[in-house]
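Q: I'm writing up a methods section and want to include an example of the input and output format. Could you take the sequence below and give the corresponding predicted structure tokens, formatted cleanly so I can copy it straight into the document?
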Amino acid sequence: MNNRLSLCIVGCGSYAHVVMEYVGDMTDEIEFSFASRDIDKAKAYCDQYGGFAYYGSYEDAASDPRVDAMYFITPHDLHLENARLAAKHGKHVFMEKPITRTVDESRKLIEATESAGVTLMVGENFRFDPATEKAKEFIAQGAIGSLSLIDIQSENLDDGCVGWRLSLDRCGGGRMIDGGIHYVDVLRNLAGSPESVYALVPSHKMIPDLEGEDSMALTASFPGGLTGFLRYAGWTPHDSRRDVRLTGTKGRIQYEVFGSDVTVQTKEGARSYPVEPEIRGMKAMMRDFIGAIAEGREPTMNGQEALNDLAVVLAAYESVRTGAPVKVADIL
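A: Here is the clean output for your methods example:
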């Protein structure tokens, strides 16, 4: 790798535009190329974002020696074969979340990248939320005493659930594995991995063509008695929200994921603390990937971390199926 990471964006659908909106100006650090099974789409992206190359197949991109790494923005059922292709050609892998649909697929994906000696990072941008990091600092300082309850509520005005995302098989689930997993990662980032989860889904759907669930309520039990609640709605007819409340023995912390401040409330009163803005965490996430490759270290959101997020989601699905709490360790 030279002074810039040569990164091929693989999969030129609508979300690739979202990614480029946030990282497309990082041209001092990244040189972009684009791959699609529709070469006209790849060329259009290349022209729009000033890429150095475009490819009409993923194989052509993987075999180009100019490419250092591949960022796969592809359906979940393709993640394992995508990673294997990149690893076979010695390319570092940046995989959109979730890592895969199942624990078995995830372990095989991790093994493929480890055996090839390439870096694997999973695109969980919520791990790079400055507001969550600020909240963690206050928890570590004992600002609200011992943490006893975490309550996360997310509602999305329009989640763009179309095409392959409607398929239970291709997605690996419904909206929870695709969108709700972001908030699972927030929960785990704040408190670690839960021991067990119990989950429910409503009978009425807001996305009628979706084969899986579009909403879920989840209760997570952590070591030491900490309880977490996660309420996720993949589509709602009103304004979006990303609220987090942390209750401790001496006070409460409240903030919005990717919000501009964190509020700490104790018996002495409430005070809001500003946080450095980081839009969706995309640039910080990409810089962590670049740094991991350059320094030969594990990225923050490595394969195991992503698998731990997925295990919570899969435990929630099993809980919905059985109507009982499920131990996360039993999923892994």
